[in-house]
Design a protein that fits this description.
This protein is mostly beta strands. Helices cover about 0% and strands about 50% of the residues.
């Protein structure tokens, strides 16, 4: 089982980024996927959830209305579209399948 995040980078406040999570080694559509983030000096927090079919999603209050989670089960990939980014969104973002973590991708929001 492997999940690999990509798409992080430096972006100005108000900007957008799309993170990708490429999964392998399991039947992707059988599993819900989650995005977490960990800011410097803080605990890892759940950002967004998507069910295996993609029909159900949920978000942390801090990102609701700005972030959107999606998945393409034909490509074994989950996405996190992040809009209206704020400096407080700066963190390492992790993709999660229950029991497995990626290495993370760093997002820095700064002018």
């Amino acid at each position: 089982v492997q999940v690999v995040e990509s798409g992080g980078g430096l972006v100005q406040p108000g900007g957008s980024l799309t993170l990708s999570c490429a999964a392998s080694g399991f039947t992707f559509s059988d599993y819900a996927m989650r995005w977490y983030r960990q800011a410097p000096g803080k605990e890892r927090e759940l950002v967004a959830f998507i069910s295996g079919s993609g029909s159900n999603t949920a978000y942390a209050e801090s990102v609701k209305g700005r972030f959107s989670i999606s998945r393409d089960n034909t490509k074994n990939t989950a996405y996190l579209q992040m809009n209206s980014l704020k400096p407080e969104d700066t963190a390492v973002y992790y993709c999660n399948r229950p029991g497995y973590w990626g290495q993370g991708t760093r997002v820095t929001v700064s002018s």
